[in-house]
Design goal:
Shape: globular
CATH class: Alpha Beta
Low-confidence stretches: 310-320
Strand order of the largest sheet: 1-3-2-4-6-5-10-11-9-7-8
Main location: mitochondrion
Keywords: ATP-binding, Ligase, Mitochondrion, Nucleotide-binding, Protein biosynthesis
Subunit structure: Subunit of the heterotrimeric GatCAB amidotransferase (AdT) complex, composed of A, B and C subunits.
Number of strands: 11
Largest sheet: 11 strands, mixed
Bound molecules: glutamine
GO biological process, one term: glutaminyl-tRNAGln biosynthesis via transamidation
Distance between the termini: 40 Å
Helix content: 25-40%
CATH superfamily: Amidase signature (AS) domain
CATH architecture: Alpha-Beta Complex
EC number: 6.3.5.7
Number of domains: 1
Order of helices and strands: HEEHEHEHEEHHEHEHHHHEHHHEEH
Mean pLDDT: 90
Number of helices: 15
């Protein structure tokens, strides 16, 4: 069978980059015939190889969520997002490695071993970000055309930033979560990774549909109220609270340069304040583990999950503890403990309820700065002329470039959580948000860093302004490529 050049290239790269551990399983060779008509020029999902994060159910490949407890699970059905992709002619080319159940920022907490980013053989192994690190790296190393991930607190945007691809988290509730293994239901969002904004938009257009099987899917009546705003020139908000002291200089310089280029291209810049941001991370790390602990309670080896071996006939309490102890990795066990504690009677008021209040403050901050009124909130309508409001916010996706895996191993869990400081606020508010790679000027890079290093610049928009966010991301990519020309 003769395959088009691009199809051969993807397959060759899957072989060549197997050591990066981006995939946990690959499609059967019999699927290869599907690539026979692949035309890479078109921004269209038809015939394209798309990788699926391993917490999204597929009938033809196992779905393990990179957890020992689901190591033998094959789903009897496809997740809605997978079905929609297949209906549109895309080919599921494999399942990607991730942090167990989506809990992590470096894709190192995996039953299949860590994802390892290495741009050249001499470079030290670095973090591909997490938890959708496998999906991001599979796109970055051209092992697939695009990939699906999930983003609960940044898991699509952070890996996109570290690996140099585009990563989009749509508004909460736009893409179906039916058949997606839950981590924290009130935050979980299916996201898309691609090499450019147009590819990501093409996938989004196929997936953006109401799903009656998902109770959190945004109903058609509310979808009809979302405006499809078009803008030639954007009012861009610069969140001053995001200019934190731990921002790596290369990241700050890339952010500043992007803003300058946007200004020179006719867009206007406006400082905005998002004061609740400083508490967003702590609120997230209370709410997400709390939801996770109740979601993961069902994996006890009796109702769901693999049962630990050699313990038949033991009392259920022993079975439960042993199955869970063997099935879950350390980070998952840590989160379950944390979540169970915050939901306990003695901690509920001081932690869980306080975190919910902060979540509301974060949402209010965003509603105050955006020109578009949040369609989910009854609020005073704002005028488009309002001097103080903005169309989108532009800020870094992460405070640093991709760290080495050695330094990640040495980090304590709290420092690891700091990677999510800029991605978590949009997650708490359910807002659309995208990370776009922006190159770093050679002068801003330490001598030993590779030339193709990029910084992720994040665009955040009001709930339902997904098209506007994609359009702004496109503008950033264009001014970026013009400045490189
Ligand atoms: N790093 C964050 C966490 O561990 C975000 C993960 C995600 O978005 N799935 O919770």
């Amino acid at each position: 069978m003769s395959l088009p050049k691009h199809a051969q290239q993807y397959l060759a790269n899957q072989f060549k980059y197997a050591h990066l551990n981006a995939f946990v399983s690959l499609a059967e060779p019999s699927k290869l015939a599907s690539y026979a008509n692949l035309k890479i020029e078109r921004h269209d999902v038809k015939d394209k190889p798309i990788a699926i994060k391993d917490n999204i159910c597929t009938t033809d490949l196992k779905t393990t969520a990179s957890s020992g407890i689901l190591k033998d699970f094959t789903s009897p059905y496809d997740a809605t997002v997978v079905k929609l992709l297949r209906d549109a002619g895309a080919v599921v080319c494999g399942k990607t490695n991730m942090d167990e159940f989506g809990m992590g920022s470096h894709s190192t907490h995996s039953n299949s071993g860590a994802v390892k980013m290495q741009r050249c053989a001499t470079e030290e192994e670095r973090s591909a970000g997490g938890s959708s690190g496998g999906s991001a790296l599979a796109v970055a190393s051209a092992q697939c055309w695009a990939a699906l991930g999930t983003d609960t607190g940044g898991s699509v945007r952070l890996p996109a930033a570290y690996t140099g691809v585009v990563g989009f988290k749509p508004s909460y509730g736009l893409l179906s979560r039916w058949g997606v293994i839950a981590y924290a239901n009130s935050l979980d969002t299916v996201g898309i990774l691609g090499k450019d904004v147009e590819d990501v938009r093409a996938v989004f257009d196929k997936l953006n549909a109401y799903d009656p099987q998902d109770p959190t899917s945004l109903p058609p009546s509310t979808r009809a109220r979302l405006q499809n705003k078009k803008k030639a020139f954007f009012r861009i908000g610069i969140p001053l609270d995001y200019n934190i002291s731990t921002l790596q200089p290369a990241v700050r310089q890339a952010w500043t340069r992007t803003l300058k280029e946007l200004y020179e291209s006719g867009h206007s810049l406006h400082p905005v304040h998002l004061p609740a941001t400083q508490h967003a991370l702590s609120a997230y790390y209370i709410l997400a583990p709390a939801e996770a602990s109740s979601n993961l309670a069902k994996y006890d080896g009796v109702r769901y999950g693999s049962r630990a071996e050699g313990i038949d006939g033991t009392p259920e309490s022993v079975l439960f503890a042993k199955t869970r102890g063997q099935g879950f990795g350390l980070e998952a066990q840590r989160r379950i403990l944390l979540g169970t504690f915050t939901l306990s009677a003695q901690a509920m008021d001081n932690y869980f309820i306080q975190a919910q209040k902060i979540r509301r403050l974060v949402q209010n901050d965003f509603n105050r700065v955006f020109t578009t009124v949040n369609p989910l909130v009854d609020d005073m309508p704002k005028s488009d002329e309002d001097e103080n409001t903005v169309d989108v916010i532009v800020c870094p996706t992460a405070p640093t470039l991709a760290p080495s895996l050695t330094s990640v191993k040495e980090q304590d869990p709290i420092s690891t959580y700091m990677n999510d400081v800029f991605t978590v606020p949009a997650s708490l508010a359910g807002l659309p948000s995208i990370s776009v790679p922006v190159r770093i000027a050679r002068d801003d890079l330490a001598a030993e860093q590779p030339l193709e290093e990029t910084v992720g610049i994040q665009v955040i928009g009001q709930y339902g302004d997904d098209d506007l966010v994609l359009a702004a991301a496109d503008v950033i990519s264009r001014v970026e490529s013009m400045s490189q020309a």
